[in-house]
Amino acid sequence: MLFRAIAVTALFLSSLQVLAAAEVNVLSSRQEFLLRPFLERFEKDTNIKVNVAYLKKGLLERLQQQPGAVDLVLTVDIAHLTKMSDAGLFQPHGSSVIVQNVPVQFRDVQGRWTALTTRARIIYHSLKRVKPEEIPTYEALADAKWQGRICIRSGYHNYNVALISSMLEHHGTDATRNWLKGLKANLARKPQGNDRGQVKAIYEGLCDLSVGNTYYMGKMLTNPDQQAWAASVGILFPNQEGRGTHMNVSGGAIAAKARNRAEAVKLLEFLTGKHAQYLYAEVNHEYPVKSGVGLSSIVRGFGSQQPGIKNGTFHQDSLDLTRIGARRNEAIRLLDEVNFDQ
Ligand SMILES: [Fe+2]
Question: For residue 80, how far is its CA from the centre of ligand 1 (angstroms)?
């Protein structure tokens, strides 16, 4: 009897250990305030402990140096996802849940990464000096009419490289080179600063147009020091009549050497599900990838001055992100050729 009691206790303890051992190690370039709202829910729902290492830059190097330490990677931009994937640092998730939740243009068909939120790269225009109808497309940024009126961050920043890559995919090399030359000729100053810095420059009257990501509007609107910048501009979703506005992503992937693969897949599935999708998108003013998930009230207001845009809904370019990633080197070569930042 005593022996049986000991055996049962031992069994109970060992099963507790198994439960306690369920964990997943995340390497994230996304900040803690973005992940916190839904990671707690995941831990509660699944009993899987989530350990997160936050790292602003150098995820690829970290994965190479400590391969077994990471199960799931969370990052932004197609360039980062493609680079790590090409370096063999990801493995296919093999999940039909993810395939169902994420539209095909926003995930690797082999399952090595998936987008989790999307952001549009749009044109910010001075509400005072430019009507949205005046600048309907990215292509129009090269029109001589805008000479000395455009501000932009470095052409080599990943966000701009992806936009140029999409131009390459749609128009080919020669047309994209000419477009870059035209855009450069229209700049009010050398490329510099970040996306919000360009909006500040519009507010200060240095320029009338800039190129930037949508969520920065949300960040400025919720930052008392930047609300005046936000109030001076409107969001213009380019190419609504044609192919749609260029999109980029934040994403996630299963590390090639994941020790807790099953738990990592579960977390990635959770991140593409309805609950996490709303929270993940809302907290950084982004768009959910899963269809049918609502937009936050701030995001619904984006583009409200633009004819045809209602409740923040706009026509998105459905170009496959994998093809954008593949054009990266060519885009950088063109930037060199036209001396874009000089
Ligand atoms: Fe950003």
Answer: 13
Ligand 1 centroid vs 108 CA: distance in angstroms? 22
Residues 64 and 132 in one domain: no
**Hey, what are 43's tokens?**
């831990």
184 and 63 part of one domain = no
Q: Is residue 342 part of a domain?
A: no
- Kindly tell me the burial class for residue 69, based on how many C-beta atoms sit within 10 Å of its own C-beta (0-12, 13-18, 19 or more): middle
The pLDDT tens digits of the residues spanning 10-68 come to: 555 455 444 557 999 999 999 998 898 899 999 999 999 999 999 999 999 999 999 89
Domain region containing 48:
2-118+248-293
How many Å apart are CA 219 and CA 18, to the nearest integer?
42
The reply to whether 173 and 268 lie within a common domain is no
Q: Report CA(23)–ligand 1 centroid distance (Å).
A: 29
Distance (angstroms) between ligand 1 centre and the Cα of 332 equals: 19
